[in-house]
Amino acid sequence: MPELPEVEVTRRGVAPHIEGRSVRELVLRRDGLRWPFPAGLAEALKGRTIGATGRRGKYLLIHFEHGTLIVHLGMSGHLRVLPPGIPAEKHDHVDLVVEDASGLQVLRMTDPRRFGAVLWHANEDGELEEHLLLRGLGVEPLGAEFSGELLYRESRTRSAAIKQVLLAGDIVVGVGNIYCSESLFRAGINPRTPANRISRARYDKLATAIREVLAEAIVQGGSTLRDFISVNGQSGYFQQSYFVYDRAGVPCRICGNPVRQVKQGQRSTFYCVNCQK
């Protein structure tokens, strides 16, 4: 599944091609993906000008003066910017056709598994942050509100393993499985440690590690996952920098002990028993 860095890489890739352009048409080739497409969405966007793009956790936000298009890539989705006239293939479900003085461009959403989403939040429906999918999200890990103090304060009543607490997304959003494993390794924290038993000082290290890992992943184009490609079709290469994720049995890059793999909440966790206490 595309995680925060992959979604941010996507946002940065599409922004120059759609911001400030008007919508010629929205082509929907099915009734919906994970959820039905909003009724009348194509008509609501036709002729409207796109403002800024944004991101909240793993949700891509495309802002208009009268509302916001909320896009989630699901398990297998990706966006591409294409010239007009390229025929749609089997899993190409949505085309946002935009135009300016230089001509037309197509933002195409491809989603083989159809777990993605394209939804609409009108201004008249209230604040965007109160949308059902956004209201329970924690702070942004790259934002000013995120800190070790926040992690420490919000974890005092949580006895669940720290990795599960981070993945829950209600304290900090967007730290998915890959980057959670890598951040915990960098901070030297065992992923099975109860969240309420970690000290403030160790949370300071973890917050710094999360920021660094996510920022580095974005610079490197994210991780090239099985179902993810960037807007221009290029591969991310952060996976070449993994210290523990998907390296079970391989010697730790720091101490040489084999990286271990365990299951936590139906997801694989990778860690070094020697480097992570």
What would a concise description of this structure say?
It is built from 6 helices and 10 strands, in the order H-E-H-E-E-E-E-E-E-E-H-H-H-H-E-E. The chain has 277 residues and is of the alpha+beta class.
Write the layout of secondary structure elements.
Layout: H1 4-18, E1 22-28, H2 41-45, E2 50-56, E3 59-64, E4 67-72, E5 78-82, E6 92-100, E7 103-110, E8 117-122, H3 148-154, H4 162-168, H5 177-187, H6 200-219, E9 260-264, E10 267-271
Written account of the structure:
There is one protein chain. By secondary structure, the chain is of the alpha+beta class. It folds into 2 domains: 4-130, N-terminal domain of MutM-like DNA repair proteins (Alpha-Beta Barrel), CATH 3.20.190.10; 148-271, Helicase, Ruva Protein, domain 3. The protein has helices spanning 4-18, 41-45, 148-154, 162-168, 177-187, 200-219, and strands at 22-28, 50-56, 59-64, 67-72, 78-82, 92-100, 103-110, 117-122, 260-264, 267-271.
- What is the succession of H and E elements? HEHEEEEEEEHHHHEE
Q: How many beta-strand segments?
A: 10
Task: Please summarize the sheet with the most strands.
Answer: 4 strands, antiparallel
Q: Are there runs of 5+ residues with pLDDT below 50, and where?
A: none
Going by CATH, the homologous superfamily of the largest domain would be MutM-like, N-terminal
Key attributes of the depicted protein:
23% strand; four-stranded antiparallel beta sheet; 6 helices; Helicase, Ruva Protein, domain 3; N-terminal domain of MutM-like DNA repair proteins; 10 strands; 277 residues; elongated; alpha+beta
